[in-house]
């Protein structure tokens, strides 16, 4: 009987350690997860009310016609960018510093929330809406510095 109680206590302590260690391990991964979404903003025509945003670690960049704050700064490294696409007329694409595009969501697929992994290297990356980029629906990701820690 004592062995059973001792075994149960040991197992309980082990589960506590595993549960405690879990959030610590995922916390650093969550710290590298910028979030993109469509948002509403009162802007100039023809895109009044529509914008695209990207948030990370207290920073938010919004892209709309006349947007003064459309740049977010990140260090080089691997990121998991999560975007929410609930529109039949907009999409998310990512352009690297060399000019190549990666479609994240399409029109009119409405995929909901999509998370994708990207290795951000030095330079300016652009998260944008393909048909409305010319109207200012984009945010810039300025990647510089010495890389991620942790």
CATH class of the largest domain: Mainly Beta
Give the structural class.
alpha+beta
- Widest sheet, order of strands: 3-2-1-5-8
Gyration radius (Cα, Å) is 21 Å
CATH superfamily of the largest domain: Cupredoxins -  blue copper proteins
* Helix-strand pattern: HEEEEEEEEEE
CATH topology of the largest domain: Immunoglobulin-like
Distance between the termini: 45 Å
Q: Taking all residues together, what is the mean pLDDT?
A: 77
Estimated helix fraction: 10-25%
Describe the structure.
The chain is of the alpha+beta class and 150 residues long. The chain folds into 2 domains: 1-30; 31-143, Immunoglobulin-like (Sandwich). The chain contains 1 helix and 10 strands; from the N terminus they run H-E-E-E-E-E-E-E-E-E-E. The protein has one helix at 2-30, and strands at residues 35-39, 51-56, 59-63, 71-74, 77-85, 93-95, 101-103, 112-120, 123-128, 138-143. The model is unreliable at 4-28 (pLDDT under 50).
């Amino acid at each position: 009987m004592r062995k059973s109680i001792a075994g149960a206590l040991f197992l309980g302590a082990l589960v506590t350690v595993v549960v405690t260690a879990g959030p610590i391990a995922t916390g650093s991964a969550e710290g590298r997860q910028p979030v993109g979404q469509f948002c509403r903003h009162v802007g100039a025509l023809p895109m009044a009310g529509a914008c695209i945003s990207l948030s990370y670690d207290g920073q938010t960049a919004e892209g709309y016609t006349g947007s003064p704050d459309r740049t977010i700064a990140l260090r080089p490294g691997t990121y998991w960018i999560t975007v929410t696409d609930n529109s039949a007329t907009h999409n998310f694409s990512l352009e690297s510093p060399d000019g190549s595009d990666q479609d994240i969501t399409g029109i009119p697929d409405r995929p909901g929330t999509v998370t994708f992994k990207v290795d951000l290297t030095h330079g300016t990356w652009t998260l944008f809406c393909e048909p409305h980029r010319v109207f200012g629906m984009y945010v810039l990701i300025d990647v510089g510095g010495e890389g991620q820690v942790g």
